[in-house]
Amino acid sequence: MIKQIVLAFLGSVFPVILFNIDRKKIVWAGLCGVIGWTTYLGVYSFNKSSVAAAFIGAFMVGIYSEFMAIRLKTPAIEFSIPGIFPLVPGITAYNTINCIVEGQYSLAYSKGMQTIIVAGAIAFGIMLSCTTYKFVKRKIRL
């Protein structure tokens, strides 16, 4: 588990370097990936659903990103994009293409649908967290 957390941190730090985000935010973006991946692991071990785990992990990444954006006075996207990298279903997408090349079209369809659903869950989790955070913030001000 420690190995996965370290890899999630590195998986979030390298996009920060790639996208030329301010180096002062490198640790915070790495922590965002750790929060998302740890949440994913916790939810997945509880219900064995990669879709639900990806959704809740992305939701936590979005909440953390919005919080850090206000705290560090920077756009939330500087944390959310690197933070979701560990959640992206890359191996499933690879397996989809591999099945297509090998002619296993029904398995490729299954893997492809799983990839699309998990990717949609990640996008929906980020969108819902940003909307929820802004809604709660507006209600607290009133």
Automatic annotation (TrEMBL):
BP GO annotations: succinate transport
Keywords: Cell inner membrane, Cell membrane, Membrane, Transmembrane, Transmembrane helix
Superkingdom of this protein's organism: Bacteria
Cross-referenced Pfam families: ThrE_2
InterPro entries in the cross-refs: ThrE_2, ThrE_Dicarb/AminoAcid_Exp
Cellular component terms (Gene Ontology): plasma membrane
Keyword Membrane found: yes
Localization terms from the record: Cell membrane
UniProt domain Threonine/Serine exporter ThrE: residue ranges: 4-129
Transmembrane segments: 5-21, 27-44, 51-70, 116-136
Mode of membrane association: Multi-pass membrane protein
Signal peptide: none
Recorded family membership: Belongs to the ThrE exporter (TC 2.A.79) family.
Protein name, per record: Uncharacterized membrane protein YjjB, DUF3815 family
Organism: Clostridium cavendishii DSM 21758
